[in-house]
Amino acid sequence: MLRQQLQQKLSQKLSPQQIQLMKMIQLPLQALEQRVKQELEDNPALEEGSLDFESESSTEFDDYEDRESSTIEAEDINVDEYLSDDEIPSYRLHANNHSADDEETRVPVTAGASFTQGLLDQLSMVSLEPEIEEIAEYLIGTIDDDGYIRRELMAILDDLAFTRNLFTTYDKLEESLEAVQTLDPPGIGARDLQESLLLQLKRKRPSPGVTAAKEILNRCFDEFTKKHYERIEKKLDISEDQLKDAVEEIIKLNPKPGASAAQNVRGAEQVIPDFTIRIVEGELELTLNSRNAPELNVSRSYNEMLQHFQKTKERANKEQKEAVLFVKQKLDSAKWFIDAIKQRQHTLYITMQSIMNRQRDYFLSGDERQLQPMILKDIADEIQMDISTVSRVASSKYVQTPYGTFLIKNFFSESMTNEEGEEVSTRKIKKILEDLISEEDKRKPITDEKLAGALKEKGFPIARRTVAKYREQLNIPVARLRKQL
User: Fold this and answer.
1) Which of 137, 194, 365, 425 has its CA 20 to 30 A from that of 110?
2) If you ran DSSP here, which 8-state letter would residue 95 be given?
């Protein structure tokens, strides 16, 4: 049975302004500058300039904020005087006068040819049959970012027939592949790691170490990847010194020849810190990057225009009402945007101030073992903000310290209790674990079980599986793969 009834309930919703503010807090510096630039282009009531609008226009804002229900009247109002198409925009009246002593803040970025185009340019200088050259060009297009051709040659043969209408033989395809593999960097166009390393060894000057390295890769590649050195010595009947010379030759090779070449043509990536922490007379000093607080102002001409409309007595016509509504909306939007920038600046500062105070010992010493356990909730409770707000600040902002520039979220870590009942940061345990591994005898690396015992002796009773988890998070291989001759 259908029926109608009234029901009251209390719900909490975010206003569009609150949503936009959260998005602005999350923006990194470069994105913020683009956002400000876009707002300046979209809103003519917003101008670049000092933030002195509060002292000059505070009463004016109070006047028009409550004007939604007021009646707008007009007396000899000519809207065209204010909204003339012939008005020259203010930015066209600004001269770009720069002193020779002005600091240049732009970072030059060089752009080069793409990695694929570089290979095609090399190929064009090689004398090849037209069919072989066409196949080689296609093969270059299949090379991935690491410099490998991952697809099976038979599949490429079918693609050539269906996409290029080029019917060729497997032998010619292999001949084209050999031509591609002669290009730079060495090892390019290989189908797997073993082939790439062998291609690089072929370019090296012959020596006993290079010859032994080729034998190892050809006959004992599986044993080499697992570092079963005793098996290699026995299978190839070589001494430990010969094996050591061969391994030194192999570790000099590049397992990803395409990656290193592609880096030369990538655009420069620049990290701009949002905060700077300095040590001044033994105390920490936090400053916010001034680019987080762009100088914005509400347009005086738009404000005066609205004041003129307000003081009129006769009722305005429809066009004038629409003009006044447009002006008011733009002024409201400009004021809100300026307030949002200031709120963003305040939120960033108090969040980083709280983080700096909690990690004071680390910022004074630079020793990661001084990092204290800290989670998002700790900071959120201290600054009385939501956890999501702290997360937005920490996930995309950088801080410049005397020891380098770091992502803020790296200072957060879980805690565990040591034998003395004190809570310590997992980052501290990882640092101790990293130090233990770096000091180990590389001929006999320490196993995870022994690492767990060593940590227990230092007062950190953690299980072997936890040691393995921390080791993997540090991108450190197992003991067998850390073994060196």
Assistant:
1) 137
2) -
